[in-house]
Amino acid sequence: MKKVFLAATFVAALMIQACNSGQSTSGSGDSSTMDSTIMGSTSDMATDTSGMNPASSDPKDFMEKAAVGGMMEVEAGKMAQTQASSQSVKDFAAMMVKDHSAANKELMDIAAKKSVTLPASLPAAEQEHLDAMKKMSGAEFDKHYMGMMVQDHDKTVSLFKAGIKNPDAEVSGFATKTLPIIEAHAQKATEIQSTMK
User: Fold this and answer.
1) Under 8 Å between Cβ of 12 and 54
2) For residues 9 and 120, is the Cβ–Cβ distance under 8 A?
3) Which 8-state DSSP code applies to residue 84?
4) Each residue's pLDDT tens digit in the chain (197 positions)?
């Protein structure tokens, strides 16, 4: 049971990180940005993934970033299902939890085969962001969450496009299979965000 939870958490983190493909290879470069953006606008509060290097050819690097991204998507999605006021946002969040949980599990399976240990919890910056979001509700939450989803998925698309070129066949296959799903998420997030004022 613990293994399944850790795997799901890892995959969720991977997906989230994938959505945050602009982040550095450290995967935890979001903390300074998160601290400063928590006081800013909802669009500024989106996870900063500027430290992520999507061009990295290291399979482990890709898996770790994708795991953190996927984990973040699942956790934020669970929160949105209860704190969002818009049904379209709640529906989007449910899709995030479902799709990213599945991708996270697949990624964990690949990592286990390769003896790669994926993060079992979110980096401090991402956790701080989620903690700040817990204080939001209604339209404020909806606007922030969807702004975060647009930014994160744009970055994740870049991460997974780079992952397709990864020299590891399984990692490349995972990225190739998952990219269309992430691109669909990015498009839907943009559509929902465009309806908000």
Assistant:
1) no
2) yes
3) -
4) 444 333 444 444 444 444 444 343 333 333 333 333 333 333 334 444 433 444 457 899 999 999 999 999 999 999 999 999 999 999 999 999 999 999 999 999 999 999 999 999 999 999 999 999 999 999 999 999 999 999 999 999 999 999 999 999 999 999 999 999 999 999 999 999 999 87
∠112-49-10 over CA atoms, to 5°? 20
Q: How many CB atoms lie within 10 A of CB 173?
A: 15
Report DSSP state, residue 1.
-
Q: What is the largest CA-CA distance in the chain?
A: 47
Which one-letter amino acid corresponds to residue 23?
Q
94-101 CB contacts, 8 Å cutoff, 24+ apart:
95/185, 95/188, 96/149, 96/185, 97/73, 99/15, 99/181, 99/185, 100/11, 100/12, 100/15, 100/16, 100/70, 100/73, 100/74, 101/8, 101/11, 101/12, 101/74
- Look at the block and give the residue holding tokens 């509060």: 45
